[in-house]
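Figure 2 data, in text form.
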Amino acid sequence: MKLKSFFADSVEAALERARKELGPEALLVYSREAPPEARGLGAYEVVFAASAGEGIPGTAGPAPGGRATAAEGSGEACGALVSAELGELRRQVGRLAAALARSSVVAPPPGSFAEAAEAASEGLIEAGLDDGFLAGLMGRLQARFERQKPPEGPALPAAVGGWLREEIEAALPVAGAEEDGLGEQAVLLAGPPGSGKTTTLAKLAARYGVERGRRVRLLSLDGGRVGAAHEIRAYAAILGAGCRFLEAPSELAAAALDGAPGELTLIDTPGYAGSDGEALAELGAALTRQPPIDVHLVLPATMKPADLRRAAERFRPLRPDRLIFTRLDETASPGSAVAEAIRSRLPVSFLSVGRRIPEDLEEASAGRLVELLAGGVARRLAGLWNAERRPAAGAGRAAAA
């Protein structure tokens, strides 16, 4: 892994040049106002990272045009990464690159926009935000800084945090149940073992059936699991809903058509693990022959970012329409779930924050998802200004990243 600096009049221009020279995998690590001795090369110095051999020339001379110079620092991959995904490796490289940059590049002035942008970037990397989206996000923040000039002093981190929330909200795929008419067609819940599908199904039945006076029936493809049949029958009895167990995905077509007009049909499925590829393929093939069935992929927010990505990829044969995140009450890092929604571009329909039925089921909203992803970043930004560190007047505008 190597670092390279690009000098340009704006971060966007540097980003465009870096991707042309280093390729789309180039990761924006750090940016600052160009030092006086390099001001003739451009107003800003922007540092990018890429794996060795991914387009960074072996020489340290300037790139075409004479405005790019090689930055010091390189890292070596340690150990054998047997089954690590490319996305997780890139995140690890990003963290290493950030550490190298901080050790070899002058730290941004306290209280500056550069410092606030760096803190926001580190927080979003920890949350698992996709590197490509993060680079674009930081570029848009830089453009807003140049265009709007935020207030100086203690108000600067809050202004940067506000911009960050607006940019993330604009990119979030959200599809609330009311907007998409949940209950107008059959809804199938799928997900890995232990993701909370059956409990979420009961919450949906209570919310859209009992509370709103709709007829509900429950279908299940999970009757073979020990205890599963008893659990679903118990929920059906409590909710006053019809209940039917299906032997195979091929029975979905006839079962989905059996419902009365306006009836809410909810379909439970087994928890599919990594070894259940054939079963997922069979269900996916059956879904292509069904009347409209809305597929919601249920993922626990307690999963690590790499595990969330693997799970989402594993369920691609089902062509999910929505995401539901569960167990949000059990994690201190819910941002990775929102980062997966941004990466996959699947709208988020519901959030589950506990086991109470149906109180702990929320319809997703952009504001709520932004809070989950950017809440930790907001705390980082708030900590940049304290009684022991008062930057000189003008520092917020004197340093740009």
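Caption note: The radius of gyration is 25 Å.
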